[in-house]
Amino acid sequence: MNVFILNTGRCGSTTFAKACSHIENFTAKHESRTHLLGESRLNYPPNHIEADNRLSWLLGRLDETYGDSAFYVHLTREREQVAESFVKRYDSGIIEAYRGKGIMLNLPDNSNPLDVARDYCETVDSNIRLFLRDKSMKMNIQLETIEVGFRDFWEKIGAEGDIEGAIKEFSIRHNASKEPNPKKPSLLGKILSKK
Fold first, then answer.
1. How would you classify the pairing of strands 48-51 and 138-142?
2. What's the CATH code of the domain at 13?
3. For 58, which of 23, 73, 95, 183 is 20 to 30 Å away at the CA?
């Protein structure tokens, strides 16, 4: 059985994958096939756990490939914290693609970054909720209650291995956003200084 950790990003997915590396009867990776196209993009090995926020844009293909035979987790974090984390990375990654020349075409340069990040989060979470509507093997896990949620997840997928080592991963900050450099103006600072 394959397991997919669907999420917006900035909600603990890297740490979740690290925790899953303590499972002996599944492999686990974070964004392991983002560089591939076509059938290769979703050709995960059997008994693999994948955490990848970009899967929220590939849900039709994910459904065609795995449908109701996989186990799905909707990993979330308090919305404002996710949005604020994306603002710290506003000029890179998925949020840049969303607001730049990607999804939200012709978005005014002076758009409030926090509003853009909130919009991104609602879009992705809505896509995931719709995708999961007809799935029989699924669960929601919130980062704020991760220890309880992860233990439940461990049991539901029949994981074997070092659960205590897995839980300890959540006390380590993996892939944390850095505070903006105060000497270098952020995009938000540049926008506000033009007003």
1. unpaired
2. 3.40.50.300
3. 23
